[in-house]
Amino acid sequence: MKKATHLFLFVFLACWTASSSWADHPKLMVLRGNITELSELNIPWVLSEHGHHVFDSKYLPAINQFREQGHDHFIIKPFSAFKPITKNQTKGNANPNIQGLLNQLDIGRWYNDVVTLSSWSRRTATTGNVSAANWLANQFSQMGYTVSQPSFTVQGQSTKNIMAEKVGTVRPDDWYLVGAHMDSISNTSQAPGAVDNASGCAAVVEMARVVKDMDFEASLLFICYSGEEQGLHGSAFHVSTLSNNQTLSQLKAALTMDMIGYSSNNDRELLIESSQAHTQLMNLIASMAATYAPGLTTYTSTNYWGSDHVPYIDAGVPAVLLIDDDYGVYPGYHRSTDQPENIDQDQAMKIITTNLATLANLAGAVFSDDLIFMDDFE
Ligand SMILES: [Zn+2]
Q1: Domain containing 24: what range?
Q2: Where are the alpha helices (DSSP H) in 248-344?
Q3: DSSP bridge pairs for 256
Q4: Assuming Cys at both sites, which of 35, 60, 65, 257 could form a disulfide with 180, CB separation 3.0 to 4.6 Å?
């Protein structure tokens, strides 16, 4: 990249992240999503950051034509419709008990689970999807959780979410959810979905694993969704179940993860996404990252779209998405090449660490003196 381009991008980025002076530019549009499948159109993107790709509106007809051929995993809006995405790094004081809990995360164990999940082609309502779902249910059962497998239909076919619960010891009616979709999709019959989203699903498993023997003041729900790729069906089904049971208000936060393991440039970056109404939750997560995951750069965005946080936010539940900041340029996106070797394990570890610290804070992890004593002598 030439110097002049650098300077231009820097000025543009500064405006993009700090003010709205570019927002009135009538010719600029933003495409939100992954642009790998659009590469044949040779669009000269003005900027690609945070899964947002800025382009001149004269390319809109070509993109729309491409979309009509069935490529519809993105949205397009005028530049002015997007709110600035901001770097968000406020460090707090580390709690030694929480630090001790985070130290129990095992990235090698997580990666093994990513490899296991990626060995099944997990397209919704296929046998590979069922095998992965059963494996997940078995994992959670062996950890001692109460497991349920509610089923629902996607395009006329039955599929299921996998849910694992632990009831809180002090405020059992307050629920905190950690979720990620387990289904995958691809341009061929093989859909390994390592980054999208064995990475997030295995993170749900690893988080459940390290807290399995601990008490929490509030109740925990770990959930792996199916039917995400066909339109967020698993998370929408969960929201509708809670609404029907009149327990939606008991869900105090939903921490969802999607594509946490890709870095295009060896930087460790996290994009935290929710609506404006849940800025406080996003700020908490950003501060957990700054405190417990040094080296992870975090951005917050209120342009929420396209993953399992959406049905919760739309129903009024404080919900966030944690996603790698480079997902919009991941070459393996929705392809048979989405394999475990593409994963940046260190970045994934930092994102899982951030999410577990958030969960421990929100749901009130209970640390006994015995545990501290034991830790001192290990
Ligand atoms: Zn995904």
Answers
A1: 3-84
A2: 279-292, 309-314
A3: 179, 321
A4: 257
**Which amino acid, one-letter code, is at 221?**
L
Q: How far is the CA of 118 from the centre of ligand 1 (A)?
A: 13
Cα of 62 to ligand 1 centre, how many Å? Answer: 25
**Closest C-alpha to 269, from 300, 308, 307:** 300
Give me ligand 1 centre to Cα 273, in Å: 14
Residue 289 and residue 245 share a domain: yes
**One domain, residues 69 and 130:** no
Same-domain check for residues 40 and 181: no
180 CA to middle of ligand 1, Å? Answer: 8
The pLDDT profile of the chain, 378 residues, written as one tens digit per residue, is: 333 344 344 445 444 544 444 445 568 999 999 999 899 899 999 999 999 999 999 999 999 999 998 887 889 999 888 898 989 888 889 999 999 999 999 999 999 999 999 999 999 999 999 999 999 999 999 999 999 999 999 999 999 999 999 999 999 999 999 999 999 999 899 999 999 999 999 999 999 999 999 999 999 999 999 999 999 999 999 999 999 999 999 999 999 999 999 999 989 999 999 999 999 999 999 999 999 999 999 999 999 999 999 999 999 999 999 999 999 999 999 999 999 999 999 999 999 999 999 999 999 999 985 454 444 443
Query: CA 229 to CA 146: how far, in whole Å?
Result: 27
The CA distance from 213 to 351, in Å, is: 22
Flag whether 372 is in a domain: no
256 in the same domain as 224: yes
Tokens standing for residue 146: 């109460």
Residues 80 and 100 in one domain: no
If you measure from the C-alpha of residue 292 to the centroid of ligand 1, how many angstroms do you get, rounded to a whole number?
A: 25
Burial class of residue 142 (count of CB atoms within 10 Å of its CB; 0-12, 13-18, 19+): exposed
CA of 7 to the centre of ligand 1 (A): 33
- In residues, how long is the chain? 378
